[in-house]
Structure formats: C-alpha cells, structure tokens
Amino acid sequence: MMQTLQELWRDETGAILSAELVLLGTLGVVGATVGVKMAATAVNDEMKDLSFAFRSLDQSYCYEGFCSPHARTAGSCFQQEDVAVSLKKLRQLNHDEEASRKQRGKRSRRRRPVPDRG
Fold first, then answer.
1. How do residues 52-72 score in pLDDT, each as one tens digit?
2. Which residues contact 63 (CB under 8 A, 6 or more apart)?
3. What is the chain's percent helix, strand, coil content, to nearest 5?
4. Is the whole-model pTM more than 0.90?
5. 22 in a structural domain
6. Less crowded by CB within 10 Å, the N or C end of the chain?
C-alpha cells in the first residue's frame, strides 16, 4: 500500500503545468461570462415576445345588468383599444427603450478628459 502511494507521488506523467492551468481557467471564465450574457439576452427576448403575446389578447368585455321585482344589478362594459394600435405603441416603446440603452452605452464608453493639476 505504501509503495503504491509513493509511486503515485513520484508519477509526473499526468502533471498539469501552471501555465496550462491558468489558460484553462481563463478560458473557463471567459466562456462562462459569454454564456451568462447570451442567456440574459435570450431571457430578455423571450420576455418581449411574451409581452407582445399578452397584449395581443383582447380583454374587452360587456355584460348587461339584471333587473327583477326585488333586486337590481348594474351592468358593466370595457372596450379595449384596438390590438393593432396597442401593439404598434408597444413596438415603438420597445424601440425607444433600445435606442436609449444604446445611447447610454455610448456615453459610458466615451473618455472624459482628466483635469490638469498644474
């Protein structure tokens, strides 16, 4: 048993060099970062699709009241805006938000001049 452990301790055929380990670690971190970014983008796109699907549902309703000799209930009605019009507004809102996000990204990438301390 002890001899087997000593042989394993001295065996260097499967040793990983530190440079290889650093390279593999760096690739792993970069890959994970890209993967998380892509997952976030995919979830965001699915949420946009879901919002358009919800907005495509017509939620208009109307029911008449009931009247009897002993009781009376009022009716109610709600007419939703035309679905095509509201989807157009939602698309415009989505477009404006993306343009605003891109503009904020451009502003944050610009370098501000360092004040001269002379």
1. 888 888 888 898 988 898 899
2. 75, 76, 77
3. 65, 10, 30
4. no
5. no
6. C
